[in-house]
Structure formats: C-alpha cells, structure tokens
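Support request from a user on the community tier.

User writes: "When I paste my structure tokens into the form, the page sometimes reloads and wipes my input. The last time it worked, I copied everything first. Here is what I submitted, just in case something in the input itself triggers the reload:"
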C-alpha cells in the first residue's frame, strides 16, 4: 500500500463519507450540501470521479434533473437510466477537492477502471 493510499485511508476515517442512489442523494437529501468529491456508479460499474466545490447535493440534483435543467450537464445520465445510478461521496473542504479527485481518478485508472463518463485527461 502506497503513501497516498495511507493518506486516503486516514482521511476517510475522519471525514464524512456515504453512498446512496442518485435519486436518494438528491430528492431525499442524503448527500450533504457542502463541498466534496464523489464517485458515480452505473449498474455497479465505476463511471466517473468528480468534485463538487459548490456542494454535493447541488451537483447530484443537476445530474438527476438532466442536461436540460442542470448546470453540470453530464450527458450520460438521462431520465431513462438515472434510477440505476448510485453515488459515493466524501465531504471535504473545497480547497482539498481537486487533490482528492485526482488521487481517486489515478487510483481507479491504475486498477484498470475505464471511467467512461469522465472527460478528464
């Protein structure tokens, strides 16, 4: 296990993490309103790693409502598949979000994850 893995492990034990369906994260307000990082899964497969400096619940509401009304405009989530989408998040300061997002992204790619909904790199 590398140094970054150890740092992430420590961070996960002292910060708020949780998961839910996209619908529940938004409509049932399970996701916090503050900033953080997230992973999006579709039918159990990791599809995207992202950050929400303006708030996790706001980002999830944009994704759930779709590109016509949301500002995040993730074209892959539609009204026909959004109920099969789940999210995992970690609340963190906005100043740390990019660093954690990059670490999660790099870890996923190292494991061979395709991340087909990520437009990074």
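"...and here is what came back when it finally went through:"
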């Amino acid at each position: 296990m590398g140094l970054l893995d150890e740092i992430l492990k420590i961070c996960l034990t002292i910060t708020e993490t949780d998961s839910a369906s996209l619908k529940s994260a938004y409509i049932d307000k399970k996701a916090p309103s503050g900033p953080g990082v997230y992973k999006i899964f579709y039918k159990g497969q990791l599809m995207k790693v992202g950050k929400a400096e303006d708030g996790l619940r706001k980002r999830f509401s944009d994704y759930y409502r779709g590109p016509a009304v949301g500002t995040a405009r993730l074209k892959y989530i539609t009204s026909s598949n959004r109920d099969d989408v789940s999210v995992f998040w970690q609340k963190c300061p906005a100043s740390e979000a990019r660093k954690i997002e990059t670490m999660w992204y790099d870890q996923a790619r190292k494991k061979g994850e395709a991340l087909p909904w990520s437009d990074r790199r």
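Agent notes: The reload is a front-end session timeout and is unrelated to the input. The longest strand covers residues 45-52. Residues 21-110 form a domain with the GIY-YIG endonuclease fold (CATH 3.40.1440.10). Escalated to web team.
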